[in-house]
Specification:
Blueprint (H helix, E strand, L loop, with lengths): L5 H4 L10 H21 L2 H12 L5 E5 L1 H17 L4 E3 L2 H4 L12 E6 L5 H12 L3 E6 L8 H5 L2 E4 L16 H19 L4 H6 L4 H8 L2 H4 L8 E3 L8 H6 L4 E5 L5 E6 H11 L8 H4 L13 H9 L7 E5 L5 E6 H6 L3
Parallel strand pairs: 1-2, 1-3, 3-4, 4-5, 6-7
Antiparallel strand pairs: 7-8, 9-10
Helix pairs in contact: 3-8, 4-8
């Protein structure tokens, strides 16, 4: 249980075909490995580790080699993205060749090592301690002579490892997973303890869908002024075709002399009116055929709220007039504009 068969690995000269049953067996074995971790994790140790990060007076550095180094790098970036602690990955070899200059008294150095005997980390320990750093470790080997890193650090958390899923028990396909789960769970605890708000989180994620959905407001992505397809309710429909098609909104915003919104007239309305009225369309005004109860939105609403409003029942729409508290038109937001903005 818990290892790859030669058929899964694919030996030289074999077809190397993946068997769904064997794959399912491996997933069940990995689940058993993860359950062993959860069942045997010392929560008191985990809490001490999390508290140390929460109370860190300075920067928090993560370090490791191999796959543990990759996990350390990811955890450092995740912590840094929250904005309440300076955090960075400290490559152990580079640290011994000058990068240790970034470490100051009171900083934390978190060392990740499955075995607790990585020579690069053991060489770093006395140097980091001489700089006044507090040392924490995450290891899976039993504490003692076989895990010197745990003994040398101020705080060690034992990450229980039943076995690696690798057929040789060597490749860190399970140990790296539990390192990542442990680190991310602790960071989630820090977010809760710090009462991190979505607004504070968004401030550090201005790019990408996450940040844009939390930062961008309607007024940031709406069309305004000369970009607006405006007309009066007394304008003839056929006289407004250029305005209807030239602004890229697929609609007209019907307003009075003071720019109060009266209604909307879409290219769909044009097709339906032409089909039902025929040549009589030449004698119809926009105001006679417009929708006088359109959905609207405030400029201070979140852009993602605009998208939700467009997609809400009874039928989806492609745009929303943007109006102020006095129903004055100040913009228009379109589905195309939201998608172009990355939302």
């Amino acid at each position: 249980m818990g290892s790859l068969s030669p058929q899964i690995l694919g030996v030289p000269g074999s077809a190397g075909k993946i068997d769904a049953g064997e794959l399912g067996h491996l997933f069940r074995a990995q689940r058993s490995n993860l359950e062993h971790f959860f069942d045997h994790l010392d929560l008191a140790q985990a809490a001490d580790f999390a508290q140390a990060l929460l109370d860190a007076p300075g920067a928090v550095f993560f370090s490791g080699v191999g796959k543990s180094g990759i996990v350390a790098h990811k955890l450092a970036q995740t912590l840094a993205s929250l904005g309440f602690a300076r955090s960075a990955f400290l490559p152990p070899v580079d640290a011994l060749h000058g990068d240790l200059g970034a470490v100051f008294p009171g900083d934390l150095l978190v060392l990740l090592s499955k075995s607790g005997s990585s020579q690069e980390l053991l060489a770093l320990v006395p140097c980091a301690r001489a700089k006044g750093a507090r040392l924490l470790s995450l290891t899976s080997a039993a504490e003692g002579a076989g895990n010197p890193l745990a003994t040398l650090c101020d705080v060690n958390v034992h990450l229980p490892l039943q076995r690696e899923l690798c057929p040789f028990g060597l490749a860190p396909v399970t140990s790296a997973a539990i390192q990542m789960m442990f680190g991310d769970t602790v960071i989630a605890a820090l977010m809760a303890a710090r009462r991190l708000t979505k607004e504070k989180y968004a401030a550090n994620h201005p790019a990408g869908k996450i940040g844009k959905s939390l930062i961008f407001k309607v007024k940031d992505v709406m069309k305004k002024k000369n970009e607006l397809p405006l007309c009066k309710d007394g304008d003839m429909i056929m006289d407004q075709l250029t305005e209807l098609t030239s602004k890229g909104c697929g609609c007209l915003l019907v307003v009075d002399e003071m720019l109060h919104l009266i209604g909307t007239f879409t290219d769909g309305d044009l097709r339906r009116t032409l089909k039902s009225s025929g040549a009589a369309i030449f004698n119809l005004t926009v105001g006679e055929m417009c929708n006088r109860n359109p959905r609207t939105i405030s400029p201070d609403a979140m852009a993602v709220e605009a998208m939700q409003k467009m997609e809400s029942p009874p039928s989806a729409v492609q745009f929303l007039p943007v109006v102020d508290d006095h129903n004055l038109v100040i913009g228009i937001i379109t589905l195309h504009g939201l998608v172009t903005a990355g939302l």
